[in-house]
Here is the input.
Amino acid sequence: MKIVVAPDSFKGSLTALQVGKIIQKALIKNIPDVQVEINPMADGGEGTLETLLFATNGKRFQVTSPGPLMKHVATEYGVLGDGKTAVIEIAAISGLPMVPIDKRNPLNTSTYGIGDVILKAAKDGYREFIVCLGGSSTNDGGLGMLQALGVQFLEENNKEVPPVGGSIYNVKKVDFKTLNPIIKDCHFRIASDVDSPLCGENGATYIFGPQKGVREEHLEEYDQAMYRYASLIEGHVGRDVQSIPGAGAAGGLGFAFLLLNAKIESGSKIVADATDLKGKMKDADFAITGEGQSDHQTLFGKVPSFVAELANEAGIKTILLSGSLGKGYEELYNHFISCHSITTGPMALEECMKNAEALLANAARNIACLLKEISDVRTRQRIIQSKMKNHV
Here is the structure.
């Protein structure tokens, strides 16, 4: 029996790789001769870099770069096993957890470090990039990143604006002719499952601004400033991109990358393509996937639903094993043959996260025992069929 284990992370407790290894251990322990293929998944958020490097046997490169508060931090970029594709994870450079709660205010945070890391990788010889947009602390429309790449943003007095979110209020002139020439030779694939435009009620500021520190009474003026900033740039470059789905990802980084001719794609699809998940499923018997919490929203492009779609195309059934099952989880039975929560009874979120490893191991063991029975039944059926054939 071959089983493909392709989970997302259980955010805040276990990485996708840790989840995969725990499930693998339970399967191997309880099912004789089982073949388990771990393919950790991600959707462009935190952990996507680790997932891609593990699955492709890639490498990490440690660098120092300005963080979200413009203080230098130790960070990294990766290179896939193909030796030519660099991977940049926004959460590792300008991530929200990198900003203390009492300092979370996107007027003061920056994407400058992202551009800095891109340049470092480009100067190391890489021209193909996968950029993972999830988990940012910023809402600067990519201003800081573009500045690091050479673009000039000037105030009324022709003075360069600081590379922080608040500067979008003051930009009066922009010059893309100063963009570092090396960037013109680079190709960017953007891993993001956010389809928001840059501005408006469904845009970066209104949807994601509050969790980054934007007060409700400031949302409208911030959004209007973002619109003026984006419109100024679009008039300068002669392209309209702020309404393209995904432009609002990562506080407008999607918009900035679109200006660099990037292609915004499903983060799950990019990871699946890079790890050849479809190929691994061709001769599998089952797939197991999961996430921190599964509910009706899981069906809207999240990792488990994407895995289930690929498995269905390959003609195999998918089992869902998640940290918890939330509102509307009943809808998931149309896509998974069974849905499981790792909890063993009424349990606070903190307790569940603290004991996630043990709870997952126990739940995985139960699934493994059921799959063993299925394997045993199939074996007995083959023996009976063989005896009948020989008898005939």
